[in-house]
Write a structure and sequence with these properties.
Elements lengths: L4 E7 L10 H4 L9 H14 L4 H15 L6 H7 L9 H14 L2 E12 H4 L8 E11 L5 E6 L3 H13 L25 E5 L5 H9 L3 E6 L5 H10 L5 E4 L7 H32 L1
Parallel strand pairs: 1-2, 1-5, 2-3, 5-6, 6-7
Antiparallel strand pairs: 3-4
Helix pairs in contact: 2-3, 5-10, 7-8
Length: about 280
């Protein structure tokens, strides 16, 4: 019987799977504001108050909700997930890769680690494909309105959630993150992780994955100026691949990921053969 190997595919969301920030499609327009104007104001507040950028933006959504008299609830956030636009091929990507993994006797798990909002992702058409979503999230008052950041995901906490996936920990198991666990006891070793990202908050965790023997893919919008930055990350050795964000069959991402999966399966099979040879020596 073939030895089953678990493989984690970890994605950022905004600009990696979706074409822009998830809040831009539906949430910000409810304030009668353009996305450009909203983010300009939110970023100005962050800088003026020497605050954390991600936490500040979460505060600013609540602030605008009060000022514009537009109520926010989990249900409203989730409804905004229905309007998200994805890069080409994303809608068929997960089932296609899962099927390919099955043919190789690999167990594929998909995860999100994003500075976007869990509440919005819950309403997306692709939520069902993810084993877990680690994103920013709000705490709510008795009437169901957001009042405080319950969870904030930035460049440093992304590495924390990577560790949870690596060690097989639950979302709220924080203390165990820093406890020692031998590499051979980790349910999903770094060598069996493929990560996808596009922004600055992704690169620390992507570098850890690459350094640990896994694979990091920086994606960029086709024909975008961000291609230059992606290529620089590749040149600097911080990622394994810099590819256009096109997830259709036989396009570059599809080909690269399938090739990596074949490599993982081949290494698994070779390890099994080597174990048999070691057993022969002991029996001989």
């Amino acid at each position: 019987m073939t030895k089953k190997v678990k493989v984690a595919l970890i994605y950022d969301f905004d600009g990696t799977l979706s074409t822009t920030n998830m809040q831009d499609y539906c949430l910000i327009p409810q304030f009668k504001m353009s996305a450009k104007n909203f983010w300009h104001q939110a970023n100005a507040w962050w800088k003026d108050n020497d605050a954390d950028q991600i936490t500040s933006s979460m505060y600013y959504f609540v602030k605008m909700s009060h000022e514009k008299k537009v109520p926010l609830t989990k249900e409203i956030f989730a409804s905004c997930g229905k309007d998200i636009e994805y890069y080409a091929g994303v809608d068929s990507w997960f089932e296609r890769i899962n099927h390919y993994g099955e043919m190789l006797d690999l167990e594929i798990e998909h995860y999100i680690i994003s500075s976007g909002y869990e509440e919005i992702i819950e309403g997306t058409s692709i939520r069902k494909y993810f084993k877990e979503v680690y994103g920013c999230a709000y705490a709510y008052d008795e009437e169901g309105h957001p009042i405080w950041p319950a969870r904030v995901v930035n460049y440093s906490t992304k590495t924390q959630y990577l560790s949870k996936i690596n060690k097989g920990l639950g979302k709220l198991e924080d203390r165990e993150v820093n406890e020692f666990m031998p590499d051979d006891e980790r349910p999903i070793p770094l060598t069996c992780i493929i990560s996808f990202g596009d922004g600055d908050t992704d690169f620390p965790s992507m570098r850890i994955i690459k350094k640990g023997g896994g694979y990091s893919i920086v994606v960029y919008k086709p024909k975008s100026p961000r291609k230059k930055k992606a290529i620089k990350l590749l040149s600097d050795g911080r990622v394994n691949f810099a590819l256009p964000a096109d997830y259709r069959e036989d396009e570059q991402i599809d080909t690269v990921v399938k090739t990596i999966l074949v490599k993982m399966a081949t290494e698994r099979d070779l390890e099994v053969l080597q174990e048999k040879e070691e057993k022969k020596k002991l029996e001989g």
